[in-house]
Amino acid sequence: MADLSTNVRFIKGIGEQRAKALEKLGIETLRDLIGWFPRKYDDRTETKRIADLAPGETACVEAMVATEPRLSHIRKGMDLVKLRAVDESGVLDVTFFNQTWLKNNLHVGETYIFYGKAEGNLLRKTMASPVVEHESRREVTGRIVPIYPLTAGVSQLILSRSIRQGLDQCADILPDALPDEVRQAHNLCRIGYAYENIHFPESPEALDLSRRRLAFEELFLFTLGLKRMRTHRETVSVPPCKAVDMGEFYAALPFTLTDAQRRCIDEAIADMRSGTPMTRLCQGDVGSGKTMVAAACAYFCVKNGRQAALMAPTEILAQQHYAGLAPLLEKLGVRCALLTGSTTAKTKRSITAQLAEGDIDFAIGTHALISGGVEFRDLGLVVTDEQHRFGVAQRSDLAAKGQHPHVLVMSATPIPRTLALILYGDLDVSIIDQLPPGREPVDTFAVPGSYHPRLYAFIRKLVAEGRQAYIVCPMVEENDELPDERKAVTAYAKMLQQEVFPDLKVAYVHGKMKAREKDAVMSAFAAGESHILVSTTVIEVGVDVPNAAVMVIENAERFGLSQLHQLRGRVGRGKHKSYCVLVSDNQNEETRQRIKVMTKTTDGFKIAEEDLRLRGPGDFFGQRQHGLPGLRIADIGCDTLLLREAQEAAEQLLERDPELVTCPATAQRLRELFTLKESTLN
Ligand code: ADP
Ligand code: MG
Questions:
Q1: Which helix (H) or strand (E) holds 404?
Q2: Closest ligand relative to 386 C-alpha
Q3: pLDDT in tens, 329-387
Q4: First vs last C-alpha separation in the chain
Q5: Which ligand is in closest contact with the Cα of 310?
Q6: Of 425, 487, 488, which is closest to residue 221 (Cα–Cα)?
C-alpha cells in the first residue's frame, strides 16, 4: 500500500517516464496526482444513430468501418486519414488530421465508437478528428469523461490512466480530513467515494455528491486554517512602534494624498503601534496610489529605527518603485537600495552587507530579496505589491527574515468587501476607494473584428502623435489542449510588423519568456523604444507606462470583467487622453453584458460587483490569486450556502475541540496545507 506522499514514479503502472511528464504539471506525489481535479467533464454517455445526428451536435456513434482508411498528404505537416463508417441508419465520413497511425489501427469490418462533433447535411454526415476506440475496449466513451488541465507532453489519456492507477493504490487508505460526525451531520459522502467519482463519475448524481463533499472539505479546512492563524497571531506580541511626525513626509510629496490614502496609512500606523504584528491587506483600484501608502508605512517604520522592504513581482515593477520612491525618501534621510535578479554580484554583495549592518533602511526589489544570503539587521515591515502574484511561500519567506515584522499586502484586484473578508479572513483590510483628482476616465469602445483596418489606422494616428499602444493578442483554444500563447503572440506580432506597421517598431512579450527577457522588452517599451507592444495578459499587473494611450483587447469575450479592467488600467495613467478598444465577434448575451459594463464604468469596485453578479467569483479565487492553499474545487461565489455550512461546522468544532485532539486526520491535513503560513505570517 502506498502512502500519499509516495512519489508517483513508484506507483505501479506509472514508471519513470510518465512520472517525468507528470512532474511538468507539478504532480509529484500520490496526493498531488489524485488531487489533480478535472477542469470539466464531457458527457459521452449518449450514443446516437448516424441518421439522427443533427449538424453541430456532439455525440457518440457506434459504426463499422466500411472502407480502407486512406492516407493523404495535403501539404507539409498536414496528413489526413479518411474513412467511411456505417451503421444501420446511415453513412459517416470521418477525417483525422495528423494521426497517421490510425491508418493501420482501424480495420474494415470492425465496429468502433466515434465521439465528436457531427457536421454536414442530412444526406452526408461528417466528423473531423473524433475520439475513436474499439467497441470492445471502451475507455473514453460511453461515460462521463473527465477533462484535465494539461501541459505539453501529457495527454488526457495518460493522466486519466495514471490517476486510475493512483486511486487503485490508495482508495482504501485515504485519510478522511472530515471528522465523521461532521460528515454525517452534513450528509457528505465518504472520501474514497468522492475521489473515485470526481475522477470517474458513475453518474451525474455521483459527481454532484463528490463535488459537494470535496468542496465542503476545502471550505471547512480553509476556515479552520484561517481561524487558527488569526488566533495564533493574536498571541504574538511585539514592541509597539512609537508615534512619528508624518508631517515632514506629507510635505515632501508632490501632491496631496487623497482621504482614502490617508485613512489606509492611519490604519496601518495604528496596527504598527498596537503591539501585535500588522497583517493588513490594502486594496485599491489600479491607479489609486497604493505605492504612496507603502512609502508612508516604510517611512514610519524607518523613523522607528527599523528596516522596511518592498517586494514587487517583476523586475520592471521593482525598478519603477525604486525610481519613484528613492529620490523622495532619500531626501528625508531614508537610505534606499534596489535589489533584483539583474543586480550585479558585486553590488548585491555590498547591498547585502549594508542590510545586515543596518546601513540601508529600505530595500526595494523582487524575489531576489528573499534569496539566501540576504539578511536584515532588524526588518520591521514587509510590503508585498500586487500580492496575488506571489505564492504564500514567497510572502512568508520574506517575513521570515525578521522577528514578526509587520506585513502589508497590496492588491489591485478589487474584491467586494464581503468577499475580501472571507478570502482574507486572516488579514485586516483597508480599502482605497478613491482615485487621485483630475484623472480623465479611459474612453472604452466595443467593436467587431471587421473594424481592424480602422483600428490600425487609429493606432497609427496616436503613434504619430507620440503615443504608444498595447495590443492584447487573440488566442484560440485548441480542443482540449491549452492554447499556445507563445505561438499566438509571435505570429500576431510578426503579422503586424510586416503587413500593418512595417515602419513602426512592434515588440512582443508573453508568459513563456524568461523573466529577464520579459523585463527587457517591457523596459524598452517604457523607454519609448517600441511603439506597439503585443502581449498576453502578462502585462495585466502594475506596469506604469504613462505614455501608452491605447489598449486593444482582441477576443475580449475571453476575459472576465476584472481582467478586462486590469488590462484597461494599463492606460490612462498619464496626462494623455486614453482609449480602450474591446474587439469581439462572439457577442453572446453574457459577453454583451460584460462589454457593456466596461463601456459604462471605470470604477473597479463596481466592476467587481458586476463581475460577481454575472458569473460568480471564480476569477478572484483562483489559487494563484489569493495564494492561500486548498481551494481548487470550491467556488466561493456559487458555493455560498456550502461555505456558510462549512464555516459553522468549523466554528463548532473549534469550540468543542480547539486543539483538534479528537480528529488527528483533520489536524494533520491542516498542518500540510498551512504550515508555511502559520510559521511565518506571525
Ligand atoms: P497603484 O495603486 O495602481 O499602484 P500608483 O501608486 O502606481 O497606483 O499611483 C498611480 C499614479 O498616481 C502614480 O503616478 C502616482 O505618483 C500618482 N499618485 C498617487 N497618489 C496621488 C495623489 N494623491 N494625487 C495625485 N497623484 C497621485
Ligand atoms: Mg501598484
A1: none
A2: 2
A3: 999 999 999 999 888 999 999 999 999 999 999 999 988 888 878 999 999 999 988 65
A4: 38
A5: 2
A6: 425
Centre of ligand 2 to C-alpha 436, Å, is 14
The residue contributing the CA closest to ligand 1 atom 23 is 257
Q: How far is the CA of 44 from the centre of ligand 2 (A)?
A: 47
Which is the CATH superfamily of the domain at 46-142? Answer: Nucleic acid-binding proteins (2.40.50.140)
Task: Give the mean pLDDT of 588-600.
Answer: 87
pLDDT of 507 reads 96
In tens, the pLDDT along 654-681 reads: 999 998 999 999 999 888 877 544 333 3
Indicate the range of 1-10, 492-501, 647-656 predicted with least confidence: 1-10
Domain boundary assignment for the chain: 8-40+159-202, 46-142, 247-432, 443-601
Q: List beta partners, residue 214.
A: none
DSSP H or E stretch at residue 224:
helix 204-234
Give whole-number Cα distances, 7 to 28, 87, 163, 225, in Å: 6, 46, 13, 26
Are residues 458 and 550 in contact, defined by beta-carbon separation less than 8 angstroms?
Answer: yes
Read off the pLDDT of each residue in 400-411 and give the average, rounded to a whole number. Answer: 84
pLDDT digits (tens, 9 = 90+) for 153-203: 788 888 999 999 999 988 888 999 999 999 999 999 999 999 999 999 999
Q: Which residue has the CA at smallest separation from atom 16 of ligand 1?
A: 289
Q: How far is CA 299 from the centre of its chain?
A: 32
Architecture of domain 247-432: 3-Layer(aba) Sandwich (3.40)
Alpha-carbon span 407 to 394, nearest angstrom: 13
Rounded to 5 degrees, φ, ψ at 270 are -60, -40
**Which residues line the pocket of ligand 1, CB cutoff 6 A?**
255, 257-258, 261, 284, 286-292, 412, 436, 544
- Pocket mutation for ligand 1, best pick of 291, 328, 440, 547 (most atoms within 8 Å of C-beta): 291
Distance 572 CA to ligand 1 centre (A): 12
Question: Which residues have a Cβ under 8 Å from the Cβ of 367 and sit 6 or more positions away?
Answer: 311, 313, 341, 390, 394
Pick from 412, 385, 393: nearest CA to 308: 385
Q: Which of 314, 403, 300 lies closest to 361 in space, CA to CA? A: 300
Nearest to 407 by CA among 268, 274, 521, 536: 268
DSSP H stretches of helix in 332-483: 345-357, 392-399, 417-423, 452-464
State the DSSP code for 586.
-
Q: Which atom belonging to ligand 1 lies closest to the Cα atom of 432?
A: 2
Q: Which residues contact 356 (CB under 8 A, 6 or more apart)?
A: 375, 376, 377
3.40.50.1370, 1.10.10.10, 3.40.50.740, 3.40.50.300: which CATH number matches 443-601? 3.40.50.300
The rounded Å distance from CA 323 to ligand 2 centre is 13
Whether 247-432 and 46-142 are alike in CATH topology: the answer is no
Instruction: Give the mean model confidence (pLDDT) for residues 561-568.
Output: 86
Match 512609502 to its residue by C-alpha cell: 295
Beta bridge partners of 60: 47, 115
